[in-house]
Amino acid sequence: MTIRERTEQEERRLLSPRAAFAADAVRDRPETECPLRTAFQRDRDRILHSSYFRRMKHKTQVYIAPRGDHYRTRMTHTLEVAQIGRTMARALRLNEDLVEAMALGHDLGHTPFGHVGESALNDICGHFHHNEQSVRIVEVLEKGGQGLNLTRQVRDGILHHTGAVPASSLEGQLLKYADRIAYLCHDFDDAEAAGLLTADDLPPEVRRRFGDTHSAMITAMVTDLIGSASESGAVHMSPEGDETLLAFREFMFRRVYLSPALVPDRERGYHVVQMLYTHFMDHPEEIPAERRMLAKDDSEAAVDFISELTDNHAIALFQEIFVPRYWNF
Predict the structure, then answer these.
(1) Do 225 and 237 meet the contact criterion of CB atoms below 8 Å apart?
(2) pTM beyond cutoff 0.85
(3) What is the pLDDT of residues 80-111, one digit of tens each?
(4) Which residues, other chains included, contact 10 with Cβ-Cβ below 8 Å and sequence gap of 6+?
């Protein structure tokens, strides 16, 4: 018996009957099984070692080019989602490896400047959503067109971590909560550090149910979900917890995500992305050849190229194309 087979047996013995089991994982292209790692563990490792994962360390979470190096980036957000997701999955006897793989891959398709860049591309080309781009990355763009050949279960969780359609697995539904818990709590923590708000600004119901520190909030939300999911067999928070979560989210949009203090840089990032798209549509020959080869048309090639840029690369490219240079005569 291989180590992988032993792990698969342990999953059958220890996990909930409603969990996703690695032995049942399906890939579009069949592969020889690894003697050490389950299918979901291999997916996790493939994402972790991918070039798109590395790019996330230089992509915006909320603050574009912040002063100070302790603010979250898209990568640190992803790692916090994975940690919260694994904690909840273990408590609910769901598949931790599947949750971790989904979490590590869920934001691969994010643009430079975070949701600002996403909106810019969506507005100018008619349709762009980072979750769909994440799936395109793991199916097509990674490894020069080969993709990562991830299991269908992992790709389903990545695709449905946002939006109205729920994931087909409980692990995927859990990821949606882990993502929301992570970004609300750590974005509040960063907003405090930036001086945008204090704990006293929180709505009373949020402070009463979740607390007023980053750690207390995560603990309260995770505990609420575990208790409610354990009782019901479905993945959700209590009615009161979901209602307070929504109030917290509305507060964060009003006071942080749409804060007047962040609007100038958000507008600049928005225009950088749109101007780059317009430029590459006018000059498609400047799009890297690999991106053009893997796209159905120039628009898709431009979107693939721009969305993969880090914040710094997008700014540098914008300067190279649009900002006049000094000449020495």
Answers:
(1) yes
(2) yes
(3) 999 999 999 999 999 999 999 999 999 999 99
(4) none
